[in-house]
Amino acid sequence: MEVITFSSRIACDLIEYAHEKGHDVSSLYELLALPKSHLNREDIRIPSAKMGRIWHKAMELSGDQDIGFHMGIELRATAVRTTSLIMQSCSTVYEALEQGIKYSGLIANALSMRIGESEGSIYIEFTPREEWLLEPAAVVKDCLNITFVSMLTSVQVMTAIMHPPSILRFSYPKPANLSEYYRAFNCSIKFGQPNNRIGFPKDIGKVKLTTRDQGLLAVLEKYANEVKESYSATPNFASRTKQLILEMMEPQPPTLETVAQSLNISPRSLQRKIKQESGASYRDLVDTVRQKLCLKYLEDTSRTIDEIGFLTGYADTASFVRAFKRWYGKTPGQWSK
Q1: Residue numbers of the domain that contains 27
Q2: Which partner from 34, 92, 249, 276 sits 20 to 30 angstroms from 47, CA to CA?
Q3: 38 and 162 assigned to the same domain
């Protein structure tokens, strides 16, 4: 099972962008909690929950709910560092897109990606992974936006032509700042779709890259694989446990014994490893998953408090309300208002 993590470079880019906009970002670096030697390194990973907190805090600090989108538009950053170099060293645009997907995990693995063909276009489809979907909806949306801008910029840099997308679809509802989307993408856009896609005319896939270099590509791939091995060699049991809790909610959360069995480890060893990694207990992790789930359910105004309590595994509504008040200092009803 893949643990969702982000390169520390992504967090640093976001923090520095907020700093350039005139904001005091000391609290963001405190949240990041990395020594200076670990900043801006691809092989240093931060868990999705921490990245979500940093992203959300950056939004609050800047007053900008589209901070990642705006960063992508203003800086016109292509896929980060090594991934970008790998793409530029390929023979054709299509091969570059395939390699970009293959090594996208160097940047983050919060989105699963696939390449396909439709309506005379080649497209890349992005699907947020379940654990990442537990983060605030605005953060998940902003992550998609900066990824789309980065993909568009990558194609335009590789072809040296300002191609607008031939397909652009988002799964979330139409935003209020629609004019910014048209300025950024310069094409027809559909919202509320069953998938997130960006596509280009099929002929673009055959374009040969002037920067192609098979020797450099081999070196970069070797390095990229070494980086991937370096951060995937040590399993993060706390993150894996939270992912399994989420997947096994029926709606009662699974027991420690059930999760430990799935990870092929004894319950006592799992509890010890969770404590060593995060300072938390198994019960704390269950609480965290429930806490985020209930906020996601509250975004759907058609759901009742009773239903949300049931879906998050509480025996009765009173128990759910007490837990919610412990988390947020308010009842679910007060929070919604």
Answers
A1: 5-230
A2: 249
A3: yes
